[in-house]
Amino acid sequence: xxxxxxxxxxxxxxxxxxxxxxxxxxxxxxxxxxxxxxxxxxxxxxxxxxxxxxxxxxxxxxxxxxxxxxxxxxxxxxxxxxxxxxxxxxxxxxxxxxxxxxxxxxxxxxxxxxxxxxxxxxxxxxxxxxxxxxxxxxxxxxxxxxxxxxxxxxxxxxxxxxxxxxxxxxxxxxxxxxxxxxxxxxxxxxxxxxxxxxxxxxxxxxxxxxxxxxxxxxxxxxxxxxxxxxxxxxxxxxxxxxxxxxxxxxxxxxxxxxxxxxxxxxxxxxxxxxxxxxxxxxxxxxxxxxxxxxxxxxxxxxxxxxxxxxxxxxxxxxxxxxxxxxxxxxxxxxxxxxxxxxxxxxxxxxxxxxxxxxxxxxxxxxxxxxxxx
Length: 373
Prior knowledge:
Elements: H1 5-18, H2 25-32, H3 36-43, H4 45-63, H5 66-85, H6 90-122, H7 127-150, H8 155-174, H9 198-229, H10 233-261, H11 263-283, H12 287-300, H13 304-313, H14 320-331, H15 333-349, H16 351-354, H17 358-372
């Protein structure tokens, strides 16, 4: 009997590990004395490693077991964060994150693929709920990271302890894990570079504002609160935690609403929330209103990418793993440009206006909505 809970726990542990870095970005920035522009460039190490990993993800997943990819991948991410915590220059920080990014792409494709296969075997939607656990992991690591920062515990000790806990938990959960059988498909074969089809590109356009909204909140919310309102570390971390918590709540209950109202209507409401949240963050005179804005970004970005992942997995032209990798590959390309672009805008015009980059992408998503679903 297929159970979705190992997949749910996998999403939680993956995001808890991946999110360990972000509540402490402000501390790392101050320790190395980096400007927003330099920090943005250094942060590209993670998405560049991710892109390299996505080029090889399908081959890796066909060759190695789920348990090996999960356990070794989490260990790789945790180790890279420890190396980044000890970095004394932006170049060292960049290559430490690049090292961890090599594991992120494989885990990203693996978990989405397992969620889609389990969804097919069970006969009901679990993709949004699976991504809810991803958000819950980010919420947990955001809250704990904010508390650890407020207590003055060093970044190095924080990353070492969290990394050990996550890797051990992953080993316990996945050492005996049996993957779900694949969906039936008529297509065979794959390539190292996953060429996006027209259908995948439609889904990419739809996911861009959600990806950027989520990415900008993850990368810059802590620094935004510190620089704009001079709030203490626990409030700074709360911006990240609220983003993840609102994602979690929305994703957890979204499947029933998607079944009732259809993905198009749900995505429309999500895009409106992203728009409202971006405008609040850009123009807010109060830190509490900005927290509400980050909450809107979390809720708005919640189900767009999971629904697009489900749509990509169900395309019949190629294997599900290939279309999932193609969507992830092109969508995550935004992360290559987003950190330095947001950093440069923040350095030149102020960090508030860095969040305005999301606005034209929202309009693009509205134009492609009808073709996507």
